[in-house]
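Database export, one record per block. Field names are fixed; values are copied verbatim from the stored entry.
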Amino acid sequence: MTEEFTGRSVVVTGGAGGIGAELALALGRRRARMAILDRDSVAASRVAAEVASLGGEARIFEVDVSDSAQVDRALVEVERALGPVGYLVNLAGIDARAEVDQISDAEWLRMFAVTVNGAFFTCRAVLPGMTLRHFGRIVNMSSLHAIRGEAKRTHYAAAKAAIIGLTKSLAREKAGDNIRVNAVAPGPIDTLLWRGDRTGTELEQAIAQRSKMIPLGRLGRPIEVASVILFLLTSESDYITGQVITIDGGEIMP
């Protein structure tokens, strides 16, 4: 599988922590050359150092993916430094909770700017090269909430639902160019983003309460999502495109 990423670079947005960091390390073990696009350059640098220790290469680009100019500039630099982009994983996003009538215009727009616009901007930046080279693999991050909805997280669920539409539309448009586009829709994963500002007893209670809703009886681990993303990037999934794969411990079953 090491040969999968030879000659093509990988772009991971939101790769400084959680699922993104686990994915970067998994790619590092396969000697991949990758660019980590994240606003947190300090945390991203720590991940890059670990990637290097595993035999991979990671360059850090401090980017706000909601700014198309920043995205375009970064992707030009990525190809100059690491070679043609063959793989894109859009993990950058923000989380928020609020009653629907308490969501301000600014909060709604920011949610879509980072989650939806960010994924669109990066896809738009890499697709011309992928089309020219007749090869591309894209994985976008949706959510369980996009499929079932979630009270007090209307803006989050709506943005993640938009990711599904983006994914399926790009998959149909670009299949003839050997570009596969898929999404993952995780349930609750034990990351800093999920934990928020909860600590101690409050965190323990939140984990216990949420775990009761999951048939497997626990939260997911970042590596369990990263492993599915890695599968979708490799030739082992060459007949899969336009799909949304839920990773939720059985919470949603057909």
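Remark 1: The beta strands are 9-13, 33-38, 57-62, 85-90, 136-141, 179-186, 244-247.
Remark 2: Residues 2-194+221-247 form a domain with the Rossmann fold fold (CATH 3.40.50.720).
End of record.
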